[in-house]
Amino acid sequence: MLGWVISCHDDRAQELLDRLENKYGPLPQCRAVNYWRGLSANMLSRMMCEALHQTDSGDGVIFLTDSAGAAPYRVASLMSHKHSGCEVIAGIHYSLIEQMVPMRESMSSSAFRQRIVELGTPGVTSLWHQQQKKSAFCSTA
């Protein structure tokens, strides 16, 4: 099963997880990491690292963040390079995550990444998709 680390500004991550668990019951391998104003990047990194290790069963972990480029997205992006099977998604919202709950058990992390971006277009993206855009502008002369 894919682990989920939901990380958003203020208390939105915990609110999303609470709402999901109110509907589906306890969600194994899911953690919320709230990013509060004034929280240092080092502390956010430590919190997200702990959540990564708590949610990773070896099948991969999906970082679900609220906005591309913001601190939770940047920290997750750095962490994903050190751990195989990690994907970073930005632009998430409740109805999108809710659609993805049943897919946690059957999809690979890359298939999950592709599907959530397809369902959430145009406001949802992933680190992988952003990297593909940037590499299109790089030429090999």
TrEMBL record:
Top-level taxon of origin: Bacteria
GO function terms (MF aspect): kinase activity
SUPFAM superfamilies xref list: PTS system fructose IIA component-like (SSF53062)
Listed GO CC annotations: cytoplasm; membrane
Alphabetical GO biological process terms: phosphoenolpyruvate-dependent sugar phosphotransferase system
Subcellular compartments: Cytoplasm
PANTHER family hit by this protein: PTS PERMEASE-RELATED-RELATED, PTS SYSTEM MANNOSE-SPECIFIC EIIAB COMPONENT-RELATED
Descriptive protein name: EIIAB-Man
Organism: Kluyvera cryocrescens (Kluyvera citrophila)
